[in-house]
TrEMBL record, chain A:
SUPFAM superfamilies: 2Fe-2S ferredoxin-like, alpha-helical ferredoxin. It comes from the Bacteria. It comes from Gaiella occulta. Its EC number is 1.3.5.1. The keyword GTP-binding does not apply. This is succinate dehydrogenase. Residues 334-368 are annotated as: Disordered. The lineage of its organism: Bacteria, Bacillati, Actinomycetota, Thermoleophilia, Gaiellales.
From TrEMBL, chain B:
This is Heterodisulfide reductase subunit B. Signal peptide: none annotated. The keyword Oxidoreductase applies. One of its GO terms (molecular function) is oxidoreductase activity. Residues 4-87, 149-239 form the Cysteine-rich domain. InterPro entries: Cys_rich_dom, HdrB/HdrD_reductase. It comes from the Bacteria. The keyword Oxidoreductase applies. Pfam families: CCG.
């Protein structure tokens, strides 16, 4: 097939920048990475990009196609070429470009190092017996463990674009990988550190990281899990945490958000006095609803009772989010089954594998 | 007239009443009778999802249950954040029957009907850009007279796309189609799918403002007369925080920001009392003047 590519060429040493167009012949199964190899081998040997495994494991070939971060080795070109589209290929965002499609990953690794991306065991001497971690315990950090450090999430992070010091989705997801690990002994210390400025409460919930991650890590969900674990452990001094707490208070007292009190509850009385002039400007337009009498939802006693009931059941912290992942994990399977081929439903196909949760259920049944 | 359960959420009940009023006025014109849910609460806005995730799930299940009790198959939202929270909880409850049983047992204990999972959560944008697009075209007769409108989607109506799925998350078209159906000209600019900064506007104002300035500045440079958004949180930051942008950067954009229901409402001939433009912080007068000529 004929594939057209427009590639942003850049040289950090000279500052030269140019959008160059290439027209190549490639096999129909070619990925973007295969196409770049063809460009480099047969058309322009000066093109710079990173690659290694070619099979979505090493995380080297993160780059942007039409402005969105992708793994070049995961991106098939057939449909794009068939549609006659010539995509624009450029280096990832939020990281300095060294040359063409190669970025300097040092800021990425710096943040990764800042979260202590290794197990800090509960014990300081070798144990006599092996530490066995159950499947349900590992399920808590399953998605976070899939990260290949490609940087696609960091490339698109809206908060980091505005605050380069933000720890960002990859490092925080890595942090959750250890906060959620039952063998790790530094949970509180980690949560304290990740809750500092430029940490977990700086996430703007734009969900670009979940959208772009080629491995299904869902870093935004990992950040929410860290927030939940921090709250569970009483680490809630940050304004972001206080903001979140006020929503809970609102829901169980009046049902609706008590908007007018949100600023003092988040920022504190002293800081919010500075906001008085701004608030007056909004009040003139009816944007500051009076706190009294409060706007109370009908039957709000039900949501109060629900809160007490749910709290007594002990699914605090990340467990409350993890319980929903079984369903979210199946969304893709559900969509594929609806629109595409089901590889386990064909003659001579391999037996359908169990999901971990199903296996537990079936083994549980077998045991009883 | 199709009956839909209507969940207006916190902002449309409080600081963004103009969104509720214009939605109620517009909905019957495009074929919807709104059944408002009275005994429902806040969806949690991502904050309760983070602070008390299990409570988040139950709060949203309760809303879905009351929507189901109306007999409608659609729960209509007018806010991106409500849409994501409700759709996420709905997927989890629909697909994971074990989880639904547990949540239902709890709902039942406090007197809420069990949720069977029959409701679909849809944003008003998806209804009028989708199944009711013909009705929209029919009522938008008064037209926007070539008004240049910059669509601003906001985050949580596009991403995560596996939960949303109406628009292409990178190349959405629903707002553009609506603007054009109403006789306006849709302005294209890169930041239309990015974040307005609202979730951290109180805790991290500098970061939030640096996010917020991008869409407004780009829309202004592209020649937009106004911006439109389907989310009252985006609306609040784009509209009310322009004064803070001015203070911080010296740039006074004076960019009118319209709720989706107001933009379509103008084209469909809604009255002043149904549009409530006077509740906006940045004056919408230049837009009104342009359209009345």
């Amino acid at each position: 097939m004929q594939v057209g590519l427009k590639i942003w060429r850049y040289d950090a040493k000279t500052g030269d920048r140019a959008l160059k167009e290439y027209e190549i012949t490639a096999p129909e199964e070619a990925t973007l990475l295969d196409c770049l190899d063809i460009v480099k081998d047969r058309h322009d040997g000066s093109l710079a990009y990173r690659k290694s495994c070619r099979m979505m494991i090493c995380g080297s070939c993160g780059m942007r196609m039409d402005g969105g971060a992708v793994l070049a080795c995961k991106t098939r070109m057939y449909e794009i070429a068939q549609a006659g589209h010539v995509p624009v290929i450029s280096a990832m965002g939020n990281l300095p470009i060294v040359k063409d499609l190669v970025v300097d990953m040092e800021p990425f690794w710096q943040k990764m190092r800042a979260v202590d991306p290794y197990l800090r065991p509960r014990y300081d001497q070798a144990q006599e017996r092996e530490n066995v971690v159950s499947q349900p315990q590992m399920d808590v950090i399953h998605k976070e463990s899939l990260c290949i450090n490609c940087g696609c999430c960091v490339s698109e992070c809206n908060s980091m674009e505005s605050d380069p010091d933000f720890l960002g989705p990859a490092a925080l997801a890595k942090g959750m990988r250890f906060v959620g690990d039952p063998r790790d002994g530094a949970t509180i210390e980690r949560l304290e550190r990740y809750s500092e400025p430029h940490g977990l409460w700086d996430c703007t919930r734009c969900y670009f990281c979940n959208e772009r991650c080629p491995k299904g890590v869902d870093p935004r969900d990992a950040i929410a899990k860290l927030g939940a674990e921090a709250m569970k452990n009483g680490i809630d001094r940050d304004m972001g945490a206080r903001h979140a707490k006020w929503f809970v208070t609102s829901a169980k007292t009046t049902g609706w958000l008590r908007e007018t009190e949100l600023v003092p509850k988040t920022q504190g009385i002293i800081a919010s006095i500075k906001e008085v002039k701004f608030a007056m400007g909004l009040a003139v337009k009816g944007k500051v609803p009076p706190p009294f009498p409060p706007h109370v939802a009908a039957d709000v006693h039900e949501s109060r009772a629900l809160f007490d009931l749910v709290k007594a059941q002990g699914r605090d912290g990340a467990a409350g989010i993890v319980q929903g992942e079984r369903a979210l994990g199946r969304i893709e399977a559900h969509h594929e089954a609806a629109g595409g081929r089901d590889p386990y439903n064909e003659p001579d196909s391999a037996p359908r594998p169990f999901l971990p949760s199903e296996r537990e259920e079936s083994e549980g049944v077998a045991a009883t | 007239m199709k009956k839909v359960a209507y969940y207006k959420g916190c902002l449309a009940s409080l600081s963004a009443k103009e969104l509720d009023i214009s939605t109620r006025a517009l909905a019957p014109k495009v074929g919807y009778e709104l059944l408002e849910l009275e005994s429902v609460t806040c969806c949690g806005a991502g904050d309760i999802h983070e602070a008390e995730p299990d409570y988040y799930l139950h709060l949203n299940a309760r809303i879905l249950s009351y929507a189901e009790a109306t007999g409608c198959d659609t729960l209509m939202t007018v806010c991106n954040v409500c849409t994501l929270n409700l759709r996420q909880a709905n997927y989890q409850l629909q697909i994971d029957t074990g989880l639904r049983e547990r949540v239902n047992d709890n709902l039942e204990q406090v007197g809420v009907p069990r949720y069977l999972g029959t409701v679909e959560v849809k944003h008003f944008l998806w209804l009028i850009a989708g199944e009711s697009f013909a009705e929209l075209q029919a009522v938008a007769h008064k037209g926007l007279k070539g008004l240049k409108v910059a669509p601003f989607y906001g985050c949580q109506i596009l991403r995560p796309s596996k939960l949303m799925g109406f628009d292409d998350p990178d190349k959405p078209t629903s707002l553009e189609r609506i603007i054009e159906a109403c006789g306006g000209e849709a302005i294209d600019y890169p930041a239309k799918i990015k974040c307005c900064g609202f979730p951290i506007i109180q805790a991290r104002e500098d970061t939030a403002l640096a996010e917020l300035i991008q869409p407004i500045e780009q829309a202004k440079e592209a020649g937009a007369d106004a911006m439109v958004t389907p989310c009252p949180l985006c609306h609040l930051s784009l509209d009310a925080w322009q004064s803070k942008l001015k203070k911080k950067t010296g740039k006074d954009f004076q960019m009118p920001i319209l709720h989706l229901s107001q933009l379509v409402g103008v084209a469909a001939g809604l009255t002043d009392s149904e549009l409530k433009f006077r509740r906006h912080v940045v004056s919408v007068a230049p837009v009104v003047e342009k359209l009345s000529v």
